[in-house]
């Protein structure tokens, strides 16, 4: 299970809408396993297929804590063609993203959601999620629609981050948090 390269903002691939998976085969299952390993190695709590260059509707999420050996994976959720079928309530959560380097911001999302999709064995699954898990699932499903958490922010915050990233790329240096962006 190789660890895949994570595509980062401002790569335009992240803005594309992913296609439905029509055949859950060994290639899809391998991609899901690769995604989980990539997410754990990053480390992160979720990853969507477009983040590793796959134009498919697949997400993996694990908000569980590490065990005594520093391992995670006991709470791994893998969903193919996930769809939010119902949502209620509201929660504000500080989000970050493996594709949005060194930036976190508060985002308002539904506090309680119901998701349906398919598992790796082609069985339909339904999942009810609340709080952090609901936030993580919404964040990853957004990726499938070409939406980054940045798109939920004010234009000012989004533009400040975009300028910082483009400047770093022009100068050939890694993206780093600006000292004057403390509240972002």
List keywords for this structure.
184 residues; alpha+beta; 5-stranded antiparallel beta sheet; two-stranded antiparallel sheet; 3 helices; disordered C terminus
Provide an overview of this structure:
The chain is α+β, with helices and mostly antiparallel strands and 184 residues long. The protein has a single domain, classed as Peptide Deformylase. It is 24% helix and 27% strand. The protein has helices spanning 26-41, 132-144, 155-170, and strands at residues 46-48, 58-61, 77-88, 91-97, 100-109, 112-118, 124-130. The protein has a five-stranded antiparallel sheet, sandwiched between helices. A hairpin with a 5-residue loop joins strand 6 and strand 7 (124-130).
How many angstroms separate the termini?
35 Å
How many DSSP H or I helices?
Answer: 3
Helical percentage: 10-25%
- Write down the Rg: 16 Å
Q: What sequence of helices (H) and strands (E) makes up the elements?
A: HEEEEEEEHH
**CATH arch. level architecture:** Alpha-Beta Complex
Quick one: biggest sheet?
5 strands, antiparallel
Characterize the overall form: globular
Q: What is the CATH topology?
A: Peptide Deformylase
The count of DSSP E runs of length 2 or more, i.e. the number of strands, is: 7
Number of domains: 1
- Quick one: CATH class? Alpha Beta
- Work out the strand percent: 25-35%
């Amino acid at each position: 299970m190789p660890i895949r390269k994570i595509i980062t903002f401002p790569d335009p691939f992240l803005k594309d809408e992913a296609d439905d998976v029509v055949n859950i085969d060994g290639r899809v299952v391998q991609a899901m396993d690769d995604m989980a390993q990539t997410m754990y190695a990053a480390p992160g709590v979720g990853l969507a297929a477009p983040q590793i260059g796959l134009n498919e509707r697949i997400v993996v999420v694990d908000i569980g804590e590490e065990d005594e050996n520093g391992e995670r994976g006991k709470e791994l959720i893998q969903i193919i063609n996930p769809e939010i079928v119902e949502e209620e309530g509201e929660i504000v959560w500080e989000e970050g993203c493996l594709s949005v380097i060194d930036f976190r911001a508060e985002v308002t999302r539904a506090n309680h959601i119901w998701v349906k999709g398919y598992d790796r064995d082609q069985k339909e699954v339904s999942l009810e999620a609340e709080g952090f898990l609901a936030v993580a699932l919404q964040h990853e499903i957004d990726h499938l629609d070409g939406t980054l958490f940045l798109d939920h922010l004010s234009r000012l915050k989004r533009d400040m981050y975009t300028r910082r990233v483009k400047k770093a790329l022009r100068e050939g240096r890694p993206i780093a948090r600006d000292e004057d962006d403390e509240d972002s």
